[in-house]
Amino acid sequence: MRRRFLALLVSLAPTSFAQAPATDAPEAAAPAPTPTPEAAAPAPTPAAESPAPTPTAPAPTPRARKPATAPAPASPAAPVAKPVPPAEPPGMPSLPPEAHPANQPEVPAEERARQDIQASARFLFQSLLTGDVRSAAGELMYPFQLEDKRYATPEELVVAWLKQLRLKRTDLITLYDIEVLRLEDMEKKYGKAPARLGLDLRNQKDIWAAVGNLSGRPGVFLFRPYRDEFRAFAYTD
Fold it and tell me: What is the DSSP pairing of strand 217-226 with strand 208-214?
């Protein structure tokens, strides 16, 4: 019995001694396991709730372009219309061609002078009858002969003429007409100018007389050339 026990010990001894160093030595580090794709992927974390996507308007569908049309051929230039003269106002008869101012014959110089003198004499007579002597004095030639006296300035003439007009009732006098004649024609028709004028007009040329009919009495302005017009230089009645 003892022998079997010893034999058993002997048979078991090498095995225990062989395994003893293995138990005393530190365990070798086991190699790290190779991560697999499934293991390498991190575990999904619960994602925060994202807001609902905002619906976007559908992109507008591009309209089909109209095919370009060829330009229309240019029409031939229309003839330019001639300007039409303005029509006459209603109720106004149109002037005949011979009465149009552009078709009127040129007025002779003597007739034009006669018309100018008549217009100037009318203004002077009317100014005197209304008492506006100052306006009349501005249209005269100086020195001016008033009856038998001569005045060198308008101021002197205005004072003297106003004194004479105060003695006359000019408001009762009416200018009926004015006749314009050359001096020699006036003398043939009415006689010589009054001697109280004190003017020697025998050698004067281009002298005109404007004879006004003042309620049946004559009033005479004498005119002579002054620059490009005629002006009165004497008066008598």
Answer: antiparallel
Q: Three-state DSSP class for 52?
A: coil
Nearest alpha carbon to residue 208 among 173, 172, 184, 227:
184
Share of residues in the chain with pLDDT > 70 (%): 55
Contacts for 222 with CB less than 8 Å, ≥ 6 apart: 145, 183, 193, 199, 201, 207, 208, 209, 232, 233, 234, 235
pLDDT tens, 125-168? 999 999 999 999 999 999 999 988 999 999 999 999 999 888 88
The pairing of beta strand 175-182 with beta strand 149-151: unpaired
- Strand 217-226: give its sheet, edge to edge: 149-151, 140-146, 229-236, 217-226, 208-214, 175-182
Token pair recorded at residue 236: 């008598």
Q: Which residues pair with 32 in a beta bridge?
A: none
Q: Going along the chain, which residue ranges are E strands?
A: 140-146, 149-151, 175-182, 208-214, 217-226, 229-236
Euclidean distance between CA atoms 205 and 183, whole angstroms? 9
Q: Quickly tell me which residue has 């905002």 as its tokens.
A: 54
Q: What's the whole-model pTM score?
A: 0.56
Strands (E), 12-151: 140-146, 149-151
